[in-house]
UniProtKB/TrEMBL annotation:
The keyword Nucleotidyltransferase does not apply. It comes from Gossypium raimondii. It comes from the Eukaryota. The keyword Nucleotide-binding applies. GO terms for molecular function: ATP binding; ATP hydrolysis activity; ATP-dependent protein folding chaperone; unfolded protein binding. InterPro entries: HSP90_C, Hsp90_fam, Ribosomal_Su5_D2-typ_SF. It holds the Pfam family HSP90. Belongs to the heat shock protein 90 family. Keywords: ATP-binding, Chaperone, Nucleotide-binding. This is Heat shock protein 90. SUPFAM superfamilies: HSP90 C-terminal domain (SSF110942), Ribosomal protein S5 domain 2-like (SSF54211).
Amino acid sequence: FSRYLSFVKGVVDSDDLPLNVFREILQESRIVRILRKRLVRKIFDMIQEISKSKNNEDYKKLWENFGRFLKLGCIEDSGNHKRIAPLLRFYTSKSKEELTSLDTYVENMSENQKAIYYLATDSLKSAKTALFLEKLVQKDIEVLYLIKPIDEVAIQNLQTYKEKKFVDIIKEDLELGDEDEVKERETKQEYNILCDWVKQQLGDKVAKVQILKHLSSSPCVLVSGKFGWSANMERLMKAQALGDTASLEFMRGRRILEINLDHPIIKDLNVRPC
């Protein structure tokens, strides 16, 4: 039986089942396999029914006590992702202090939004004050807050929901669906000297310097590489590294500095000879 559903207790009424010679545990058989699948489905039907009940407090209590088990299911049971995902609940940049389902998030998406955006951090307070939110808040795009250690791993295992890909907003390849490639190329050429100069000053502390995709009011921000760990994942791995700093340094990669061309500091740097 699935480990992540161990919080469910009950009695199964069935015909005789084959026992091993010690008569203490069930033998693996076709009947047992069928029972296991049906039990899992029945459990999900029960939880789904509670989540859709008029009394929201019932599911809120269930989620507070057992939500982490369902998140574990995202990691351990890929075959039931479609049943688990609608049961997940997260805080978002628009939900204030209330938890939101993925169904509600998708329903509130604009027609032009192609992805489900998320931010993984260590607390709700840190998420609300993160610089990475600036551009998305300005464009009225909702962001999921992943504030529990298991959240980011669970979402990465889901990968998509209702054909919408999950996208980490702190990664360098962030796309919001309104990119103008020609304008971006012209801007990059205009500020190329400044980016090279800043990179030269910082040396190996950053992988590269590039034009912003995340900011609207701050001068700059450090983002993760496309294939690198997020800051939250790095924090989790550090806690488990057991002193293996060489391996940790290799996996996390260097950060990328994004600069905001509309900020006075960056404008002033660009007009001065570098």
